[in-house]
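Revision sheet: structure tokens.
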Amino acid sequence: MNKKVLVMCTGNSCRSIIGEALINAHLDGVEAYSCGVAPSGKVNPNAKKVLEAHGEWNEKYSSKHLDALSQIDFDLVVTVCDHAKETCPIFAKPTPNIHVGFEDPDGKGYDAFEATYAEITEVLLPQVKEVLAPKMQKSVFKTAEGVGINFTGGVQKQQIVKMVENCATGACECMSDETKKKISNMQVEGKDGDVELKLSGDMSKEEIESALARSKVLNKV
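Predicted:
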């Protein structure tokens, strides 16, 4: 099922329309909508023009109030102007929200809309993607050979390979020297989204859980 994102600004004629279109065009598995806290009732001609120039305009895009989307349960609300941030309504169910502000190109020339398009592409899309990405889950368990760790969800196999390489080369700061000495072998199996790390040796489950909590690779510190 697609994740549903609502992009909000004041007039819903420029920034939120461009954001809606860009999310729909470039983020797989995400369905975007837009609205305004005080909708103008029309899409700015230059907003439509810039989206047409990039092949991303759709006649379904329109300026509207949140009431027109009341039947949709959103997974994320994005405000792209300060006024929308300050007046963002409370939704029926707890809904994550982020604020990524952009200067309003309304009343300016077409070049300003191209600049807004580029900025939304470079700034907004990565943030929406990161927020909606599945979170990594870790499960640590004892095995006959030592300790196993199963990583699921938002995990890439290369991420775990990198962590193992850091340990092997001494670049790892998360594991104590005492624990490192107990490990005789580390083996990574699986694929993105479902990776298993097998540690051979006489270490405890608690030692490995503590090390994982300090890993800079896993926690992006």
